[in-house]
Write a structure and sequence with these properties.
single chain; alpha/beta; 4-stranded antiparallel β-sheet; 27 helices; 20 strands; 48% helix
C-alpha cells in the first residue's frame, strides 16, 4: 500500500461523482450507486479497465462488464482511468518510495554522524534500486497528478547517480573530519598524523588496502583507526581485532594500543592484537571444542633439524633419493634457467673473457657448460675444456677449432650447443651466425671421421640431457663414478649445502600447504605455466622428486604425534570460518604486513568478514615481502579486490 501521507489522505477522500454514482479512489476502488456499493479489492484492480460503450462508459473486468457508469463524461473517465492506473502501479510505486526513503535516511545519517559511507552500504542501495519501468508508466500515462510530491520525488530519484552522490558526500565528510578531528589526529600518536595517514583513518570504507612505504607510519594508522572507530562509536572495543605476522609485532601493537588510547582518554579494554597462529588456535578450539597441539619441533624452533633427519633417513634407505638429492643440491639448485643469462662469476685471464666458474676451478663460457663440467667432475671423468682440434682447420673465415670438451683416454670430442627448447640460440649479437657455425663444426667431424657427442642447453636443464650424455659416453667405455663428497679444487665454489636445501624444502612446504596444493595441483600448475622454459622440465621435476617423500614423512610425523604444523592449523581455522561454524564477532579487522599473507591467512581474514557491515584495513607493501620464507603469497596483495570485493586503495608515500 501507499504511505499514508497527508496528500494520500486527501486523495483517500477524493470523490468522483456522476448522476447516480460516486467513486472513492482510496484505499480501494469503492463504487457506490443508488442500488449497491461495488467494492473492488486492491489485488483485483490490475484486471479492471475503463472503456467507452455505445451509450455510456463502463468498467470491464476479465469476465466482461462489471458496471455501467451512466453520466460519466470524458474528463471524469480520464480521471477514473488515472486513479485505476495508479492503483495498478501501487506495488511499484511503494517499492520506489520505500527505496527512496531508505536512501535519504542513510545519506542523512552519514552526514549527521560524519561517517564515511561505505562501499558495501552503497552497493546494497544500488542493488535494491527498483526498475525504472515505473518512470515510463508515469510519463506515458501522465499519472504524475495522481501521485504525492514524495512519490514524484522518489520516481525521479531513479535517475540519480548514487556512486557520484556518495563520492561527493564522502569527500565532504573527509574534509569536515580533517578539521573537526584535528586535535585527535594531532595527539593520538606521539607525532601528528600526516594528511595521508589522517585520510587512511577517516576513510572508513568496507575494504581498505593501504600501501605503505617503509617508515611511513603504517602502525600509527592502525592504532589511530581503531581509536577513531571507538571515539566515534562505530565499533565497541571488544569488536576490534588487529592481526600481526609474528608475536613480537602483536605484543607491540597491544602495548601501543593501551598506551595511546589511555593518553587520549579512549577505552581500549577488549581490543585484541593477535598473531594469525594464536587466532587460528582460538578458532579451532571454539569450532571443534578442542585446541590442536602444535608439533613439538615447531614449538622449539627445530623444524629444519627435523627436515634434515627425514632427509638422512631417506638417503640411507633409498639410493635413488640420495642420488637425486645430491644431484639437485650440487648441480641444479644454482643452475640458471635463462639461456641468455650473463651473470658471470669468473674470469679467464688466458683467454681474456668472463665466464662461469666450475668445481674443478676453471672458467667456461656458459651456464650449460658449467653444468656439464661439474657433472663430469663429480663422476670422476677426465676431460679437457676447449682443447684445440687435432686437425688444423683454420682458414680465412675460421680460427683454429676448439670443441667444448675432449675426453683424451677415448679420443672423443663433445660439443654443447646453446639451443633452447625451440632449437634457437641466445639472442645476444655473438650468436648471429650460430646455426651456420654448428653446421660447419658437425661437417668438420664428419670430414675427419672423429667421434663427436652432442648436447644442448635445453636438454641438460629441462630434460634428461646429463643422463643421456652419461649413457652415450659409457658406450664408448668411459666409467662414471658418482661421488658427491669429492674434494672440490675451487675454494670459491659454493654449491648448496644440506641445510640450505632443507630450508628451501621447508619454504616450499609452507607454500604448498598454505595454498592447499596437492601433488596433482603442483604438476598441473607446471604444465599450464606459460614460462615453460623456466619451470616445467627436468630441473623442476627433480626438485619435486625429493620434495614429496619429505612432505609425506613430515606429515607422518605429525600424525604420530597427533599434532599439527602452522600451515595445517591456519587451513583448519580458515575452513571453520569459511563454513561459519564460528563467528568471532569482530566488526573491524586491521591486518599488518598483509603482503606477507599466505592464501590460508587470506582465507582466515575473509572468514572473519562473512557478515555484512564488517570492515577491513589491510596494510602492506605491494612489492616487498620479507616473509616469503614462511609461505607468503604476494599475489594475495596484488589480487586484493578479487578476494575481498570492491576496495578503496590508499597509499602512504612519505616517511
Amino acid at each position: 500500500m501507499f504511505p499514508m501521507t497527508e496528500n494520500s489522505h486527501q486523495r483517500q477522500t477524493l470523490l468522483l461523482e456522476g448522476r447516480r454514482w460516486s467513486i472513492r479512489a482510496w484505499p480501494e476502488l469503492l463504487i457506490s450507486t443508488s442500488k449497491k456499493n461495488f467494492n473492488i479489492e486492491l489485488d483485483g484492480v490490475h484486471e479492471i479497465h475503463v472503456r467507452r460503450g455505445l451509450i455510456s462508459w463502463r468498467l470491464v473486468g476479465p469476465e466482461g462488464r462489471l458496471l455501467r457508469m451512466s453520466g460519466l463524461d470524458r474528463f471524469q473517465a480520464a480521471q477514473l482511468r488515472g486513479v485505476i492506473r495508479v492503483l495498478q502501479a501501487r506495488d511499484q510505486i511503494q517499492e520506489v518510495t520505500d527505496w527512496h526513503s531508505t536512501v535519504t535516511k542513510q545519506i542523512e545519517r552519514a552526514r549527521s554522524e560524519q561517517r564515511w559511507f561505505s562501499a558495501e552500504a552503497l552497493q546494497r542501495l544500488i542493488d535494491a534500486t527498483p526498475s525504472r519501468s515505473i518512470q515510463k508508466l508515469v510519463n506515458s500515462l501522465r499519472l504524475a497528478d495522481q501521485l504525492t510530491p514524495f512519490e514524484i520525488e522518489a520516481v525521479a530519484a531513479l535517475d540519480r547517480n548514487l556512486r557520484l552522490d556518495i563520492s561527493v558526500l564522502n569527500n565532504q565528510i573527509l574534509e569536515n573530519e580533517l578539521i573537526d578531528q584535528r586535535d585527535f589526529l594531532d595527539t593520538i600518536e606521539s607525532s601528528p598524523l600526516t594528511r595521508e595517514q589522517a585520510e587512511a583513518v577517516i576513510c572508513f570504507d568496507s575494504r581498505v588496502q593501504l600501501l605503505a612505504a617503509a617508515g611511513s607510519g603504517k602502525t600509527s594508522v592502525m592504532i589511530a583507526r581503531a581509536a577513531y572507530a571507538v571515539k566515534k562509536g562505530f565499533c565497541e572495543p571488544s569488536r576490534i581485532l588487529l592481526l600481526a605476522f609474528n608475536k613480537a609485532a602483536a605484543v607491540e601493537l597491544q602495548q601501543r594500543i593501551q598506551t595511546r588510547f589511555e593518553a587520549a582518554g579512549i577505552v581500549s579494554s577488549g581490543i585484541r592484537a593477535s598473531t594469525f597462529h594464536s587466532l587460528g588456535l582460538s578458532v579451532i578450539g571454539k569450532g571443534t571444542g578442542s585446541k590442536p597441539r602444535l608439533a613439538s619441533w615447531l614449538e622449539t624452533g627445530d623444524e629444519l633439524e627435523v627436515v634434515l633427519e627425514i632427509v638422512d633417513h631417506l638417503r640411507d634407505v633409498d639410493p635413488t633419493f640420495r642420488y637425486k638429492w645430491d644431484l639437485y643440491r650440487l648441480l641444479f639448485a644454482r643452475a640458471s634457467t635463462d639461456i641468455n643469462s650473463s651473470d658471470f662469476d669468473g674470469f679467464d685471464k688466458d683467454k681474456g673473457r668472463s665466464g662461469f666458474q666450475t668445481l674443478r676451478d676453471e672458467t667456461v663460457k656458459s651456464n650449460g657448460e658449467r653444468l656439464i663440467a661439474d657433472f663430469l667432475f663429480l663422476n670422476g671423468i677426465n676431460y679437457e675444456y676447449e682443447r684445440p682440434y687435432e686437425h688444423d682447420v683454420s682458414d680465412i673465415n675460421h680460427s683454429q677449432y676448439r670443441p667444448d670438451f675432449y675426453y683424451p683416454e677415448f679420443d672423443i670430442w663433445h660439443e654443447h650447443w646453446a639451443l633452447d627448447s625451440y632449437g634457437k640460440p641466445p639472442s645476444a649479437p655473438g650468436y648471429r651466425d650460430y646455426q651456420r657455425s654448428m653446421e660447419w663444426k658437425i661437417e668438420t667431424h664428419g670430414k675427419f671421421k672423429t667421434h663427436l657427442v652432442q648436447s644442448t642447453w635445453a636438454s641438460v636443464v629441462f630434460s634428461d640431457g646429463l643422463a643421456k650424455l652419461q649413457r652415450e659416453l659409457e658406450e664408448f667405455g668411459l666409467k662414471f663414478n658418482w661421488d658427491p663428497d669429492r674434494e672440490i679444487p675451487n675454494k670459491w665454489a659454493r654449491p648448496m649445502d644440506h641445510q640450505e636445501l632443507a630450508r628451501l624444502i621447508r619454504t616450499f612446504m609452507a607454500h604448498t600447504k598454505s595454498n592447499s596444493l596437492t601433488q596433482v595441483d603442483v604438476a598441473q600448475k607446471l604444465r599450464k605455466s606459460k614460462r615453460t622454459d623456466s619451470f616445467h622440465g627436468f630441473r623442476s621435476n627433480l626438485f619435486l622428486d625429493i620434495y614429496w617423500p619429505i612432505y609425506d614423512a613430515w606429515n607422518h610425523r605429525l600424525s604420530e604425534q597427533k599434532a599439527v604444523d602452522f600451515e595445517d592449523m591456519l587451513l583448519s581455522a580458515a575452513d571453520i570460518l569459511d563454513k561459519e561454524l564460528v563467528d568471532l564477532d569482530y566488526d573491524l579487522v586491521l591486518v599488518d604486513e598483509f603482503q606477507d599473507s599466505s592464501q590460508a591467512r587470506a582465507r582466515m581474514v575473509l572468514g572473519l568478514l562473512k557478515k555484512s557491515d564488517r570492515f577491513l584495513l589491510a596494510v602492506g607493501d605491494d612489492w616487498q615481502s620479507i616473509n616469503r620464507f614462511a609461505g607468503a603469497d604476494i599475489s594475495v596483495m596484488r589480487t586484493f579486490e578479487n578476494w575481498y570485493g570492491q576496495t578503496l586503495t590508499l597509499a602512504l608515500t612519505k616517511t
